[in-house]
Design brief:
alpha/beta; 14 strands; binds beta-D-galactopyranose
Length: 395
């Protein structure tokens, strides 16, 4: 099985943790259709930890908790498939899952066969309580090989949080995505931390095996299992734009049955999703757009620059067909001004001698700007806000 684009879907953990059941999952599948999420590209409905009984059955098979899932998992798979969606489940490379339910260690082949029998399409595979005498790569290879031989295409989503240098061996396993960062929490600090940790890991990301920055917190507003303080809609928009630029899987984590209009608009912005799902899956790069490069007359210590925020990340990514995605991310608590954010076309690979200019359309506001006198002048960006442009070379 080959995965060519960052997977998109929903996962139960961020909001529901242990409070999952058949009714919730079936209703969530319905909402995928009703709310336009399926049309926007979301596909996988994934049940995370705490779905099983604490004991396996007499044949060593995992048993869905009958109180939560009275008709079993094949029933859920059939329902989800009947909606044209795909079904995901969760297990762990250790003796136990992170919440203390049976893990798949030494049961890999039994579990892969069981998952295939239930007709799942996606397996998230965690890393808690694993034996320390076996290398992490071997633990993931064990399940990868069992899945590859189970007779069904099952997307393998490795979740070892980047531990034990996951980036160096994860592609050996054939995994289709791998958690490159720690767990997300519903706070601006968490979003910022994950994005900045992810930034230098992009050389490991790419088509076939995507760096997974964890499930989205868009629309949680502090509710649920990873609640914390919650974020503003502006921060959620920045969060979604970052995940889109960094080619991360887009797995929704809020309760989509009760989505705010703002959260829905963020999660279904088709132009932003297209930046994430671009077929080229090119590696994003950072524009070394320091203040003194923009105006050589002024030095960083010039009072002009005093109070200008330092934490403004400028990121670009080539798109299939010749366009360029350009993201301006204001991580600071101050306004980012045009001087902070001006983009020299040369840094995007467009020399002045080409006689061409850049035409950039911002994908949240629809506003279009053009480069003039050799600079793409970006309007001010508010604290924690971002701008995400699709840039065309014109003229
Ligand atoms: C963590 C994982 C979370 C969630 C949780 C379940 O290790 O990173 O995303 O799956 O386990 O217990």
């Amino acid at each position: 099985m080959i995965v060519n684009k960052p997977p998109m879907g929903w996962n139960s953990w961020n909001t529901f943790a242990k409070d999952i059941n058949e009714e919730l999952i079936l209703k969530t599948a319905d909402v995928f259709i009703e709310s336009g999420l399926k049309d926007a590209g979301y596909e996988y409905v994934v049940i995370d930890d705490i779905w099983a009984l604490k004991e396996r059955d007499e044949k060593g098979r995992l048993v869905p908790d009958p109180e939560k899932f009275p008709h079993g998992m094949k029933y859920i798979a059939d329902y989800i498939h009947s909606k044209g969606l795909k079904f995901g489940m969760y297990s762990c490379a250790g003796y136990y899952t992170c919440a203390g339910y049976p893990g798949s260690f030494d049961y890999e082949w039994i579990d892969a066969a069981t998952f295939a029998e239930w007709e799942i399409d996606f397996l998230k595979y965690d890393f808690c309580f694993h034996p320390t005498c076996i290398n992490a790569d071997v633990l993931y290879k064990r399940m990868a090989l069992a899945l590859a031989n189970c007779g069904r295409d099952i997307l393998f989503s490795a979740c070892s949080w980047g531990a034990e240098n996951t980036r160096h061996w994860i592609k050996e396993t054939g995994a289709h995505m791998w958690r490159s960062t720690q767990d997300i929490f519903d706070s601006w600090e968490s979003i910022k931390t994950l994005a900045l940790k992810e930034a230098p890991l992009q050389e490991y990301n790419g088509r076939g095996c995507f760096n997974d920055m964890d499930m989205l917190v868009v629309g949680m507003y502090g509710k649920g299992n990873v609640g914390l303080t919650g974020c503003t809609d502006v921060e959620y928009r920045t969060h979604f734009s970052l995940w889109a630029m960094l080619n991360s899987p887009l797995m929704i984590g809020c309760d989509i049955r009760n989505m705010s209009d703002a959260a829905k608009a963020i999660l279904t912005n088709k132009e932003v999703i297209a930046i994430n799902q671009d077929p080229l899956c090119a590696q994003p790069f950072y524009i070394n757009n320091t203040k003194w490069e923009i105006n050589t007359e002024r030095k960083p210590e010039d009072p002009f620059y005093k109070n200008l925020p330092d934490e403004v990340l400028l990121m670009a990514k080539y798109l299939d067909g010749g366009d360029i995605a350009l993201g301006i991310f204001n991580f600071s608590d101050g306004k980012a001004s045009r001087w902070h954010q001006a983009v020299l076309p040369d840094l995007l690979g467009l020399p002045a001698i080409s006689g061409k200019v850049l035409e950039a359309t911002e994908l949240w506001s629809g506003e279009t700007i053009r480069s003039r006198c050799g600079v793409l002048d970006i309007p001010d960006t508010e604290p924690h806000d971002c701008k995400l442009y699709r840039v065309k070379v014109v003229g």
